[in-house]
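How a chain folds remains the central question behind the approach discussed here. This step matters because it turns folding into a mapping between discrete strings. The sequence in question and its structure tokens are set out directly beneath this paragraph.
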Amino acid sequence: MPITVQDLAARIGGKVEGDANIPLTGIAPIPQAQATEITFAENAKHCAAAEGCAAAVVIVPLGAPASRKTLIRVKNPRAAFARALAVFCPPRLYPAQVHPTAQLGRNVRLGEGVFIGEYVVLRDNVTVGDRTVIEAHCVIGEGSRLGDDCLLYPNVTIYHNIRIGNRVGIHAGSVIGSDGFGYVQDGAERLKIPQVGNVIIEDDVEIGANVAIDRATMDSTIIRRWTKIDNLVQIAHNVTVGQNCIVISQAGVAGSVEIGDNVTLAGQAGIADHLKIGANSVVAAQSGVSEDLPPGSIVFGTPAQPVMQTKRQIIALRKLPDLLRKLGK
């Protein structure tokens, strides 16, 4: 159903400048936007491009120049764009049902409005909260608990005794609660250390595809609320990841690491075991951290160092061949 500019502005926290009664049928990027759609422009370059597109309405920053088009001025155009997308492209609605091919163990407790897809396996004593969706071929181990409004995409595996909060999303192929990589040398033998802890995932966490989060040796591996984990990430046993962290694709965190709140681990970053990463730190892509980082650190390189120090070293290394030629080496 179309929505007026005024109604959309109210839902995304914006102020209308122009015709507030235009009906909108969708949202699109600047080059593809049609006359009944809205687009967004987050900087001066995009605002100029939007002037020549077909869209009648543009989401713009507060300080954007005046336009012949109707504008919705917002403090954060990208955040407003995300909210507008959710208006025009709402999440899929799942019916309350348990597919006849699903297998439910003893004492399984399902909340109101739960969707259980094809060939799902819920072991004994599993608890599933209200409106949670478990898509096809997922397996939930004995004694595990999922909160309300969770969404598990196909082929997610949750081992036994895992605790998952409310509004958690886990994408296809991820494994939560597999054994931590724990062994001890005993003569010629590598003796496996039983991994008898669990994993706790707090509210509003999203976990990408093919992520592995290991159970603790004892106690818990913990992912705090609001944290977002990209595809192909490894979180080892007894790790604690703080609130509102971002862990980007192919990053790896070794055992017993403590990560503070609001930390960013960029792609392919690696954290050695038993380290503490202070709150609000950033570890740049492909960096290897081998020592504790104080809060607010921004590091780059292997071994990771303050970002400007690593950049100076890279520049100096590039000049090395010319310096050697000058020295006749």
